[in-house]
Specification:
- It is globular, with a radius of gyration of 19 Å.
- By secondary structure, it is an alpha/beta fold.
- The two termini are about 35 Å apart.
- The longest helix is centred in the last third of the chain and has 18 residues.
- Helix content is about 35%, strand content about 25%.
- Helix 2 packs parallel to helix 4, helix 3 crosses helix 4 and helix 4 packs parallel to helix 5.
- It has a domain of about 80 residues.
- Bound molecules: adenosine-5'-diphosphate and magnesium ion.
- Magnesium ion binds next to helix 1.
- Adenosine-5'-diphosphate binds next to strand 2 and helix 1.
Length: about 270
């Protein structure tokens, strides 16, 4: 709306979005089923749900890799018609270029945008420092541990300053200690940049540790959508607080009821 102040425009808006896939057998699967979500700028949303229930499809729709059969998706008020630099994506697999040193990887998007050398250096130095890789700018990706590579990938995505950061189970395969370091790095950057994060996870503790809002997706639908108004860093004591136990129970209830179902078998 023309009367809306630009800052009030939601970063993401999904309006009754449905996506179906045709199966080889001839039937169809409704992977995302009438989903409506409004995400104001600056939220850190975790989407949690059982495997096969439409989370990645939802993310791919928002990223613009696929188009909905019904409904509309907008980013910052503009309809999504394809991928764009306003929506950065952090994939589960390492997406660093192995033939480029770490510094060049982080710099990649800045070069593509034609930033001058001194400006690129300043941004890359800041980001490498923020993700704790100052000493590794001249290392090759293969010389880094899994957790370090993931941090380098985060720096590379943030270098492009996407207004929306999309992540599909980005921390799978990392051990607890590494994940905790990365949560801290990510939350720091997110608070500094004040962008919007949409992160898919199947780990409830992860969602409770990092999110300002938790959305449970079951059978392609929003089963639960709850704000999580707690300061950071969230300590184990905070995560065990009575207010959270109630939310935990309700989320687990939805997840357990869905076990064995898929979006396909649900209809
Ligand atoms: P999740 O990420 O929650 O594990 P997905 O979004 O990947 O779930 O998948 C949801 C449903 O849609 C599943 O039944 C899956 O098999 C189906 N699906 C996803 N992508 C495709 C595709 N490209 N073609 C056909 N079916 C698909
Ligand atoms: Mg998935």
């Amino acid at each position: 709306m023309a009367t809306t102040h630009p800052d009030m425009t939601p970063s993401l808006e999904l309006n009754d979005v449905t996506k179906r896939f045709r199966l080889a057998s001839g039937g169809t699967v409704t992977a995302v089923d009438g989903v409506s979500i409004t995400i104001p700028r600056g939220e850190f949303v975790c989407v949690i749900g059982p495997s096969g229930h439409g989370k990645s499809t939802l993310m791919n729709l928002v990223a613009g890799f696929i188009t909905p059969d019904e409904g509309v998706i907008s980013a910052h008020g503009e309809p999504v018609t394809g991928p764009g630099p306003d929506r950065g994506m952090l994939f589960q697999a390492d997406t660093l270029f192995n033939w480029m040193k770490v510094r060049r990887n982080v710099e990649f998007g800045l070069r593509a945008r034609g930033l001058p050398k001194s400006e690129r250096k300043r941004i890359v130095d800041n980001l490498l420092h923020a993700v704790g890789l100052t000493e590794y700018g001249d290392a090759w990706p293969k010389q880094l541990s899994g957790g370090m590579r993931r941090r380098a990938a985060i720096a590379a995505v943030f270098a492009n300053e996407p207004e929306v950061l999309l992540m599909d189970e980005p921390f799978t395969g990392l051990d607890f200690a590494r994940r905790n370091v990365i949560y801290g790095v990510l939350l720091d950057l997110w608070r500094r940049v004040n962008n919007t994060v949409l992160c898919i996870t199947h780990d409830l503790d992860e969602a409770l540790t990092i999110a300002t809002r938790v959305i449970v997706v079951v059978r392609g639908r929003v089963a639960l959508d709850e704000p999580l108004d707690m300061p950071y860093p969230r300590t184990p004591e905070m995560l065990a607080a009575p207010e959270l136990v109630d939310l935990r129970v309700r989320v687990l209830d939805h997840l357990e009821n869905a076990v064995g179902d898929t979006v396909g078998s649900a209809r």
